[in-house]
Design goal:
The complex is a heterodimer.
Chain A (H helix, E strand, L loop, with lengths): L2 E3 L4 E5 L4 E3 L2 E3 L5 E8 L6 E7 L7 E2 L2 E6 L4 E6 L8 E9 L9 E3 L3 E6 L1
Parallel strand pairs in A: 2-12
Antiparallel strand pairs in A: 1-4, 3-9, 5-6, 5-10, 7-8, 8-9, 10-11, 10-12
Chain B lengths: L4 E3 L2 E4 L5 E6 L6 E7 L6 E7 L2 E5 L7 E4 L6 E5 L8 E8 L4 E3 L3 E5 L1
Parallel strand pairs in B: 2-11
Antiparallel strand pairs in B: 1-3, 3-8, 4-5, 4-9, 5-6, 7-8, 9-10, 9-11
The chains are: A mainly beta, B mainly beta.
């Protein structure tokens, strides 16, 4: 089974500053996807960014970027130029990628609550 | 709008009653997952369908829980004889090969 660990329960950042959220995972798989999801107080889970394990290049989506270290099984999220709307709970997630029908199950970390201060 | 809809959005029920939730996934996605999320925690996997076949059930899913996905379209999650510990947000996800789309969830409160 895959485990995903987020060691920071809460993070606070000043508006326009940068914050980095950490995530580590444990797997014996070689092919997988990693995700960061955002869950605002309205509680709907929204995909922020996705990384395919076979790609060495770190994924970037506007102000969101990741630092993917496959050997270290680390997948951190950097939010640049933080905005008030970034306030939410952020979840790191793992999905195995393969031919088996039991693949593609999404395993989540416990989450990090990010508060952006005005 | 992610395309996954769940109904109802909120449900308050008395302990011991049965409840049923519905999820309508994105039509072209054949994989559908149910998760449970308690306040301040990450979603926990409950069960998984590929088309109409239920392929995996978590040990979290006691005998009081049952899920169906007739004809591989919408899915229902039923909880019988609800307990206060069942109070949580129940999330449905419609999954393509590399991305999960979540519904807004059904918040269950057992009183």
């Amino acid at each position: 089974a895959q485990t995903v660990t987020q060691s920071q329960p809460e993070m606070s950042v000043q508006e326009a500053e940068t914050v980095t959220l950490s995530c580590t995972y444990d797997t014996s798989e070689n092919n997988y996807y990693l995700f960061w999801y955002k869950q605002p107080p309205s509680r709907q889970m929204i995909l922020v960014i996705r990384q395919e394990a076979y790609k060495q290049q770190n994924a970037t989506e506007n102000r969101f970027s990741v630092n993917f270290q496959k050997a270290a099984k680390s997948f951190s999220l950097k939010i640049s130029d933080s905005q008030l709307g970034d306030t939410a709970m952020y979840f790191c997630a793992f999905m195995k990628h393969g031919a088996s029908s039991n693949d593609y199950k999404l395993s989540f970390g416990a989450g990090t609550t990010v508060t952006v201060r005005a | 709008d992610t395309g996954v809809s769940q109904d109802p959005r909120h449900k308050i029920t008395k302990r011991g009653q049965n409840v049923t939730f519905r999820c309508d996934p994105i039509s072209e996605h054949n994989r559908l997952y149910w998760y449970r999320q308690t306040l301040g925690q990450g979603p926990e996997f409950l069960t998984y369908f590929q088309n109409e076949a239920q392929l995996e059930k978590s040990r979290l899913l006691s005998d009081r829980f049952s899920a169906e996905r007739p004809k591989g379209s919408f899915s229902t999650l039923e909880i019988q004889r609800t307990e206060q510990g069942d109070s949580a947000m129940y999330l449905c996800a419609s999954i393509s090969k590399s991305e999960a789309f979540f519904g807004q969830g059904t918040r269950l409160t057992v009183v």
